[in-house]
Amino acid sequence: RDELSDKLIAAGVAVHDVTAYSTEFTPITITYSYNGIVFFSPSAVESFLSLNSLAQVPCFCIGKTTGDYALRKGYKDVHIAEAASEDFLIKTITEYYKKYPLHVKE
């Protein structure tokens, strides 16, 4: 992703990008219904959408970058953790389902 390099270049900083890693998508097709989906990165959103259509369920994202990417890809019900940590993500999910409890068939 080029956001950081672009901002540095725009600020007049000389930049030499070095690729430290490369993301490999590992998508799976979801064949059942679910009550929400959790994303930890924009590449996870991309990987999911490569084999699945947009979910009509809430989407929970670990940070703003991931949440903004999910919104750009067409998700409507996106919930972003206050801080990019697993603890805040769990808090976001828990608060959502306290407000909108699941109705489980017995």
Produce the secondary structure layout.
Layout: H1 3-10, E1 37-39, H2 42-51, E2 59-61, H3 64-72, E3 78-80, H4 86-99
Parallel strand pairs: 1-2, 2-3
User: Helix count?
Assistant: 4
Radius of gyration: 17 Å
Shape: globular
Largest sheet: 3 strands, parallel
Kindly name the structural category. mainly alpha
Mean pLDDT: 90
Widest beta sheet: strand line-up? 1-2-3
Task: Please trace the helix and strand order, writing H or E for each element.
Answer: HEHEHEH
Distance between the termini: 46 Å
Q: What share of residues is helical?
A: 25-40%
What is the strand content? Answer: 5-15%
The poorly predicted ranges are none
Kindly state the number of beta strands.
3
Question: How would you explain this protein's 3D organization?
Answer:
It is a single chain. With 106 residues, the protein is mostly helical. It has 4 helices and 3 strands; from the N terminus they run H-E-H-E-H-E-H. The chain has helices spanning 3-10, 42-51, 64-72, 86-99; strands at residues 37-39, 59-61, 78-80. Strands 1-2-3 form a 3-stranded parallel β-sheet, sandwiched between helices. The termini are far apart. 17% of the residues are buried.
What's the short story on this structure?
The protein is mainly alpha-helical and 106 residues long. Helices cover 39% and strands 8% of the residues. Strands 1-2-3 form a three-stranded parallel sheet, sandwiched between helices.
